[in-house]
Amino acid sequence: MVKTMEKFVVTPWEVKGEVNYDKLVKDFGTKKIDEKLLKRVERLTGKLHYMLRRGLFFSHRDFDIILNEYEKGQQFALYTGRGPSGQVHLGHLMPWIFTKYLQDKFGTELYFQMTDDEKFLFGQKEKLEETNKLAYENALDVIAVGFDPKKTFIFADTDYAKTLYPIAIKVARLTTFSTAKAVFGFKNESNIGSIFYPAMQAAPCFLPSILKGRNTRVLIPAAIDQDPYWRITRDVAPKLGFPKPAAIHSKFIPGLAEGGKMSASIPDSCIFTTDKPEDAKRKVMKAFTGGAATVEEQRKHGGKPEICSVFQYYAFLFEDDDKKLEERRNACKSGALLCGECKKELAERVAKFLKEHQKKREQAKKQLDKFVVKD
Ligand code: TRP
Q1: Which of 132, 169, 227, 325 has the most CB atoms around its CB within 10 Å?
Q2: Whose CA is nearest to atom 14 of ligand 1?
Q3: Is the beta carbon of 80 within 6 A of some atom in ligand 1?
Q4: Does the Cβ of 226 fall within 6 Å of ligand 1?
């Protein structure tokens, strides 16, 4: 059975339990992406991206204002990022794929932050040199998604500090410890670097305005766990004379194991972009499904796509055709489609995707210079 009463937790450091996204919208004070907004995006971009059609991006702050300004000829900038604590997995790619769609449709610049400082300060790795190295390895995955080299700027915090630091201290000066504690749960035992870090994640929100010498609003596509950062940034923006950053929030792609999101700390729950296609296939074949205990039972009663990690993979990344996704759902529920077959098909798609991604990732090594900015 699906447990709906289980308590869930969503913070920038922890996502646990079965997430109630409607409750998050209320608790965080964001807005749901409604039909009206979707229609507007459709008018501006043509057919909606499947992540919008399916509500995988489901919530926002001021996305409507971004569109108002865009319609008046005012260009915005995109900002997103990655904490380089290990290899990139397919869950990380999801918002990046959506970000590329936004860049293509709106012709926007993208500022991509690699937080080598964050992953060092919060202890995911012992050595700063290690998170810094990972920043550039992970950048290959970002580039492989296909961003425009002329319009995309990737930076690691410690290598772009001369530009970011003056912005960060302006944010920091306006943010009290009690606010940071309330928003992020810092304790007396927290190291002082981690307490300052939110100012570093806020800084790129104002970077395009500073680099261009004219106010430029940013839109941040990211999973909803990052929203606490944008809350404090939006508070200080007017005091610094900058537009408030807008955000568009995604859900979490579930892990291949039962419950929980894809997590790099549970290697079999996720597929890394650097996994050998054969290993990835093996992980898919072992995945948790919504199938019945026996074939006879499943033929009779059908499977449960709503709790099935394999079905979720199709929905989040591997089936962009709504009609085909519905057919798969119905075939599962009727008992016509068994888990073995469904997993095998997904395994093939995943392997094919990985082969292509890995080729682009190799090519990205030569392009790194075109994307990376340092100071
Ligand atoms: N804190 C994020 C992480 O741990 C990294 C990050 C920095 C980010 N800036 C961002 C994510 C902007 C999304 C949008 O992964």
Answers
A1: 227
A2: 80
A3: yes
A4: yes
The residue whose CA has the least distance to atom 8 of ligand 1 is 81
pTM: 0.95
* Rounded-to-integer distance, Cα 45 and Cα 50, Å: 13
**131 C-beta closer than 6 A to ligand 1:** no
Architecture of domain 267-362: Orthogonal Bundle (1.10)
Domain 9-256, CATH 3.40.50.620 — does that match? yes
Ligand 1 atom nearest residue 222's Cα: 13
Residue minimizing CA distance to atom 1 of ligand 1: 83
Q: What does each of the 375 residues of the chain score in pLDDT, given as a tens digit? A: 444 556 889 999 888 888 999 999 999 999 999 999 999 999 999 999 999 999 999 999 999 999 999 999 999 999 999 999 999 999 999 999 999 999 999 999 999 999 999 999 998 889 999 999 999 999 999 999 999 999 999 999 999 999 999 999 999 999 999 999 999 999 999 999 999 999 999 999 999 999 999 999 999 999 999 999 999 999 999 999 999 999 999 999 888 877 666 677 777 788 999 999 999 999 999 999 999 989 899 999 999 999 999 999 999 999 999 999 999 999 999 999 999 999 999 999 999 999 999 999 999 999 999 999 999
Q: Which helix (H) or strand (E) holds 249?
A: strand 246-250
Q: What gap in Å lies between CA 79 and CA 206, rounded to an integer? A: 10
220 lines ligand 1 (CB under 6 A): yes
For the chain, give every domain's residue range.
9-256, 267-362
